[in-house]
Amino acid sequence: MGMTMTQKILAKAAGLDKVEAGQLIEAKLDLVLGNDITAPVAITEFEKAGFTQVFNKDKIAIVLDHYTPCKDIKSAQLCKQAREFAHKHQLTNFFDVGQMGVEHALLPEKGLAAPGELIIGADSHTCTYGALGAFSTGVGSTDMAAGMATGLLWFKVPSAVKVTLKGKLQPHVSGKDVILHLIGEIGVDGALYQSLEFAGEGVASLTMDDRFTISNMAIEAGGKNGIFPVDEKTMEYINGRVSRPCEAFAADPDAVYSREVVIDLDKLEPTVALPHLPENTKVVSEVAGTPINQVIIGSCTNGRIGDLRIAAAIMKGKKVASNVRCVIIPATQEITLQAMKEGLIETFIQAGAAVSTPTCGPCLGGHMGVMAEGERTVSTTNRNFVGRMGHTTSEIILASPAVAAASAIAGCVADPRA
Amino acid sequence: MKVYKYGANVDTDVIIPARHLNDPSPEALASHCMEDIDADFASTVQAGDIIVAGPNFGCGSSREHAPLSIKSCKVKCIIAPSFARIFYRNAINIGLPIVECPQAAEEIQAGDQVEVDFVTGVITDATQGKTWQAAPFPEFIDGIIKSGGLLNSLKERGVAK
After folding, report:
1. How far, in Å, CA of A225 to CA of A370, rounded?
2. Do B84 and A146 touch (CB under 8 A)?
3. What is the CA A44 to chain-centroid distance, rounded?
4. Which residues of chain A lie closer than 8 angstroms to B22, CB-CB?
5. Which fold has domain A5-263?
6. Residues 114-153, chain A: which have Cβ within 8 Å of B?
7. I need a surface site. Which of A197, A314, A384, B81 has the fewest CB within 10 A?
8. Single pTM value for the model
């Protein structure tokens, strides 16, 4: 019986020839990540346990991205704690305001994730780096503390759901529609304790930004990770970013999957997830016209340059509807600069959108777009749980950058193809 | 011990809303526990009470603040058919007992008096006069729990400095 792509990476990191689903292993970590919310808890536990040294100062990344630039005194205290720890242990990959970006857009951009690597992060969307053919997964702060101290962590080897992609995406349809459609099909616990392994001829047509978006939301199906095969586009992306040796793994032809789901990209339509679960999906045309108050374009899911290009193409020469507040947040400084060079930022500002420095802010109801009672946002973020973005009676409709931009102009949920 | 009962997919945003993550002290986390799903929880919960819920408990964010807030309320354990995987890890790593038992999770009602024997895995509902057998933890995970959490187990093994 063969191994899945995920199982091969885990076997290598555990120093084993073979692993199988359900097996508990201890594996070596290539990178340990935390942010301004989770790292402070990890640091407190690390110090409380009496640990004095990190396992490798080059293999720990701390990114201050959630409540930054600091929204209040308490979040400033947390950043201070993380900053002091990073300096004390001389962490190479500490990203403060001015260098930081939304962590899961930043790390691949900085070459800190590569094919075949094993990455943990005290942030659930750490699964994003599966787009590069890495095994990456979200963990808690105690796991982060353990990882920082030892470079090791325990894992239960997952079984996998195979997601076979056929065909090619149509205009105004993107990676976000693929992952929302998949979550709608299998549910928010459809991949619980399992990997999502993407395969099929349809993979080749997806841009890296599409793949990052898809892997990013594997957790929204309960998945441990969401992984793509390594191809020319992957190598082109890491070329110039990653100089260390890395290894591309492929699933064995006789790998066993618990289930296979086939998605025909040709037939996929712009898809949204209605409140209050990412599995409440509808084709956008079914809910077009739904009143909204706000549009957010950004986040670790959809704040990359490809996302901004899609939004700008729709918003160019148009105005954000008078009943809508539109906030656009490029995910990193590099993306912001590129968007400036291409004139995208000018397009957004002339359309009447607010453009922000990188932050996770509104996605988790932190700052930069918190909702009042009864308000509704179309958002390119990843979760639409009760109270996620503000008041418990506020609502979030998850959507692609194309749907979000079209909705900002129309003043209600809108189909970008209309 | 009395039971608080909730539905499926209880997410970490309702267990501890992100607006309270800027203060990770146990007291602050406890005072806002379950606030967006049950506004009375934090003020009525007593040491030893039990949470019973539907599948995929703790889905969403990786925030360890979620199990920490429940632990800080001195909840004895959580019984559910399944837990979201990061929540599952976090609960074990910090020593918050969780029990996977679909039948008990379905049949136990809010307000029931329930006892859990962690050695045998037997769940007893005195109100209904019923008992259920939960699946035992694998030995490796049981070891972490017995050490009092992940970091203690690493210290015992001498793998960290």
Report:
1. 29
2. no
3. 26
4. 37, 67, 71-72, 74-75, 78
5. Aconitase; domain 3 (3.30.499)
6. 121-124, 126, 138-143, 145-146, 149-150, 152
7. B81
8. 0.97
